[in-house]
């Protein structure tokens, strides 16, 4: 089968690898669409250390069942599906509590680090455990379905905070995750949702997908938040950048007793304005991947409650993968999600 292989850092090539087979409890999926994630771009140049070559990356995918392994029930050849990016064991104490995102033996598709190596979906076929596979409604295209991984991250982050009708919220960062969090907050019942970013084009997108107001992070947006909330601050801030300055601004933007959900993690460490957190009794809530939100995310896309089409910048054949990775790596402006279509190679 054809794959996009990271054979060394900053070098992707189209290669031929043996087609995987579905082992016991697994299904074989013919990959129709697989999105390039920011973490793939950070793995590509070696900066994250989580894509040690040689590796086939790709964990945001959708396709159809091409084979069913021993002991798998409920799937047949041709079923349109997507799958969780996280492979959890289903047996550890976290999995038993339903916190599958915190599984002790957690592996991510398309990741190779010091602990494990797991082939991903920039390939014509990928084999995955059937317990992480979800059926897709016919109304959802494979390209939209490839966005479900990011949608479930957003839905999970929002599920960790208490939203009541009339709540107001701030999203810091209007990237892929921030724009989906914004929509998930609206679905959860937030009445006013503000969003801040440095990038004008991303703020424009935020407006298109329903932000109450957009705020330039080049200016003092904490002051603006205070002004629009009568000096109290928002009930909830979701940090979707992961830098000291944005964590600080998120903390300063919430009301006393409010919550900051931390999703961004681009920096391993940030400076924390400790006294502002303690004396204003804030709750800092980390959020990692998703834990059972796929069915809800599928429903939200299928009903149009969350829109992903405006976030898809390009759909391209697998052969064009190397060029798109370079363009994303160069941080070309106005690029959001790029989706490759491996199973459709000519
Ligand atoms: N916790 C999780 O499960 C999870 C899952 C996916 C991604 N992430 C993390 O979430 C973050 C966002 O991911 P993404 O895919 O949306 O990335 P992205 O690159 O698409 O978006 C980041 C956005 O932050 C903006 N930004 C940068 N510096 C800023 C500043 N000082 N002020 C305001 N905005 C600023 C950028 O302009 C960009 O729009 C990353 O840190 C990523 O690692 C976490
Ligand atoms: Zn990802
Ligand atoms: Zn587990």
3D architecture notes:
This protein has 346 residues and is of the alpha/beta class. 26% of the residues lie in helices and 28% in strands. The protein has helices at residues 38-44, 93-96, 142-145, 148-159, 176-188, 200-208, 221-228, 244-253, 274-279, 294-302, 321-329; strands spanning 2-8, 11-16, 26-35, 55-56, 60-68, 80-83, 86-87, 107-108, 111-112, 117-118, 125-129, 133-135, 168-172, 192-197, 213-216, 234-239, 254-262, 283-286, 312-316, 337-340. The strands form five sheets. Strands 3, 5, 6, 11, 12, 19 and 20 form a seven-stranded mixed beta sheet that branches. The protein has a six-stranded parallel beta sheet with strand order 15-14-13-16-17-18, with helices on both faces. Helix 7 (221-228) runs parallel beside helix 8 (244-253). Bound molecules: nicotinamide-adenine-dinucleotide (NAD) and zinc ion (2 copies). Nicotinamide-adenine-dinucleotide is lined by residues 38, 153, 172-178, 196-199, 202, 217, 240-243, 245-246, 263-266, 287-289. Residues 88-89, 91-92, 94-95, 103-105 line the site of one zinc ion.
């Amino acid at each position: 089968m054809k794959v996009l292989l990271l054979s060394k850092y900053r070098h992707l090539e189209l290669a031929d690898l043996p087609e995987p087979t579905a082992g016991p409890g697994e299904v074989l999926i013919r990959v129709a669409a697989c999105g390039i994630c920011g973490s793939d771009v950070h793995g590509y140049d070696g900066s994250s250390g989580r894509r040690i070559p040689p590796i086939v990356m790709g964990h945001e995918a959708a396709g159809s069942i091409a084979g069913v392994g021993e002991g798998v029930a409920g799937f047949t050849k041709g079923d349109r599906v997507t799958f969780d990016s996280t492979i959890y064991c289903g047996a550890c104490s976290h999995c038993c509590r339903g916190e599958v995102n915190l599984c002790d033996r957690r592996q991510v598709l398309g990741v190779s680090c010091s602990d494990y190596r797991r082939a991903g979906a920039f390939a014509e076929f990928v084999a995955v455990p059937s317990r992480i596979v979800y059926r897709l409604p016919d109304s959802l295209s494979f390209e939209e379905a490839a966005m479900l991984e990011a949608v479930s991250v957003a839905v999970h982050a929002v599920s960790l905070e208490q939203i009541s009708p009339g709540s107001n919220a701030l999203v810091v960062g209007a990237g892929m995750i921030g724009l989906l969090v914004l929509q998930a907050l609206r679905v959860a019942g937030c009445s006013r949702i503000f969003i801040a970013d440095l990038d004008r084009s991303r703020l424009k997108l935020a407006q298109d997908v329903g932000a109450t107001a957009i705020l330039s992070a080049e200016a003092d947006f904490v002051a603006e938040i205070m002004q629009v909330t009568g000096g109290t601050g928002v009930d909830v801030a979701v940090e979707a950048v992961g830098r000291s300055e944005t964590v600080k601004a998120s903390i300063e933007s919430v009301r006393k007793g409010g919550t900051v959900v931390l999703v961004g993690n681009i920096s391993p460490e940030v400076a924390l304005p400790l006294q502002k957190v303690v004396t204003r009794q804030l709750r800092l809530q980390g959020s990692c991947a998703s834990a059972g939100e796929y069915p809800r995310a599928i429903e939200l896309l299928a009903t149009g409650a969350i829109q992903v089409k405006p976030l898809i910048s390009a759909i391209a054949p697998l052969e064009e993968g190397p060029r798109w990775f370079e363009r994303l790596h160069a941080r070309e402006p106005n690029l959001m999600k790029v989706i490759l279509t491996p199973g459709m190679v000519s």
